[in-house]
Design brief:
Blueprint (H helix, E strand, L loop, with lengths): L2 E5 L2 E2 L6 E8 L7 E7 L6 E6 L5 E3 L7 E6 L4 E6 L8 E8 L14 E2 L3 E4 L3
Parallel strand pairs: 2-11
Antiparallel strand pairs: 1-3, 3-8, 4-5, 4-9, 5-6, 7-8, 9-10, 9-11
Length: 124
């Protein structure tokens, strides 16, 4: 049984930092593409960052230079370090795992497994 469990969300002031974690089980972590998506109220789920088995990382333009994705294959855990947070970063953040190829990494449909999400709130 595959499980992805996010943690680390919370309320943080503008300019602050948070690090999200995604603990996985039941998935061959080292061979899967791992990603973070987010969904704000009333909006579609959007791509945030992706780690293609540590060979390459990719970011949405809106977070590039502020967020850093990383993974620990030994712990089977994915991370998202978020710096210089802005109110527009407020959303539920989801961890995802799949066999996404490069052309599909930004498409939620390319990921087979999802966590339950963790809320990040940056008040205006």
């Amino acid at each position: 049984q595959v499980q992805l469990v996010e943690s680390g969300g919370g309320l943080v002031q503008t300019g602050g930092s948070l690090t999200l974690s995604c603990a996985t089980s039941g998935v061959t972590f080292s061979t899967h593409t791992m990603a973070w998506f987010r969904q704000a109220p009333g909006k579609e789920r959007e791509f945030v960052a992706c780690d293609r088995r540590t060979t390459n990382t990719y970011y949405a333009d809106s977070v590039k230079g502020r967020f850093t994705i990383s993974r620990d294959n030994a712990k089977k855990t994915l991370y998202l370090k978020m710096d210089t947070l802005k109110p527009e970063d407020t959303a539920v953040y989801y961890c995802a795992a799949g066999r996404a190829i490069l052309s599909t990494i930004r498409n939620p449909d390319a990921y087979a497994y999802w966590g339950q999400g963790t809320q990040v709130t940056v008040p205006t």
